[in-house]
Amino acid sequence: MAIITLRDIETNNNLRVKSVIDPGIKFDASGKFEIIKNIKWMFEDTELEVPTEFHDSLNHAKLDQYVGLQYVIIKIETN
Predict the structure, then answer these.
(1) Mean pLDDT by 10 residues, the chain (79 residues)
(2) SS3 of residue 39 by DSSP
């Protein structure tokens, strides 16, 4: 699980988002299945999901990288 701290460049407030693994099952035509790991991003304080347009940036996060036009990554924590 990763926790990323973002800074809102308009208000200068920080907010934290965390990655959560949401397991799923994929079946094929022959009945075989595969367990897949879907990564979701949640706001740490509200537990609401981060908009999907930010997921790719968060999955490949680097310090000082912009997430959308309003946020910049200032800290990355991993477990």
Answers:
(1) 96 97 89 90 96 94 96 94
(2) strand
Q: Name 79's Cβ contacts closer than 8 Å, sequence gap at least 6.
A: 1, 2
Tracing tokens 């537990």 back to the chain, one arrives at 47
8 A C-beta contact, residue 23 and residue 38: yes
Task: Tally the C-alpha atoms within 13 A of residue 13's C-alpha that lie toward its C-beta.
Answer: 3
Please state whether the predicted TM-score (pTM) of the whole model is above 0.85: no
Burial 24-40 (b: 16+ CB within 10 A, else e): eeeeeeeeeeeeeeeee
Contact 4, 58 (CB under 8 A): yes
49 CB contacts (<8 Å, ≥6 apart)?
Answer: 40, 41, 42, 43
Domain regions of the chain by residue span: 2-78
